[in-house]
Every structure is written in structure tokens, then in C-alpha cells.
Specification:
Elements lengths: L3 H6 L7 E4 L3 E5 L7 E7 L14 H17 L6 E4 L15 E5 L9
Antiparallel strand pairs: 1-2, 2-3, 3-5, 4-5
């Protein structure tokens, strides 16, 4: 498998890590779309939200327990947005489940 995020998790490609534990890895986006833009990815390769199953849902639940800590550590005290793109029509550019944490300013009311 040739996955960009797996290579980042393995340390083969450098990243600006902001959080890591046994189940997930978080790093700053190289093309930020907000003043703060971080990606949180499971260490286990899951292609997208469409591949979440009862067998791997615990990893996703874990990610959502650490997102508030990551957001706080990044200084996002006034709120933030979580986004996951799925598939071609959802503009998923890397086929590894990931959640964008976006914040650092008042975000647009528009979601698209």
C-alpha cells in the first residue's frame, strides 16, 4: 500500500506533529485552510468514514475523545470545526480516514 498518511505516521515523511498516542497521530496541515488546521488520523489504515465498522469503531471513538485535548492545546478556546471528506465527490484527497480540526478565527457559516 502506498499511503501518504501511513508514511507520515511511520516517520518516512516529516510532519509537524501536535499529538500522538498508540491509536492516532495528529499533525499540522501543510496547506492550512484556517489559522489553525490540524489533521487527526488513526494509525491503523482505514480508507474513509465508509470503512468504519464495528471492529474498528473504537479507534474513531478514541479520536473523538482526544480531539478536544488537541484543540485546547492548539489554543482553540472559542470553538472549532471538525470535517472529514469522503470519496471523490467529497473531495477526499488522501484515502486514509482523517479528521480536520479547523479554527483560530470565526469560520464561515457556509459548509461548502
Amino acid at each position: 500500500m502506498n499511503c501518504l498518511f501511513c508514511a507520515i505516521i511511520n516517520g518516512d515523511i516529516p510532519s509537524n506533529k501536535v499529538y500522538e498516542d498508540e491509536k492516532c497521530y495528529a499533525f499540522l496541515d501543510i496547506a492550512p485552510q484556517a489559522p489553525v488546521h490540524c489533521l487527526v488520523v488513526p494509525k491503523a489504515h482505514i480508507g474513509s468514514v465508509d470503512e468504519i465498522t464495528s471492529e474498528n469503531a473504537d479507534v474513531v471513538a478514541h479520536i473523538f475523545t482526544v480531539i478536544p485535548k488537541i484543540a485546547k492545546d492548539l489554543g482553540l478556546v472559542g470553538g472549532y470545526r471538525i470535517v472529514s471528506n469522503i470519496g471523490e465527490n467529497g473531495c477526499q484527497s488522501v484515502k486514509h480516514l482523517h479528521f480536520h480540526i479547523l479554527g483560530g478565527e470565526k469560520l464561515s457559516d457556509r459548509m461548502a
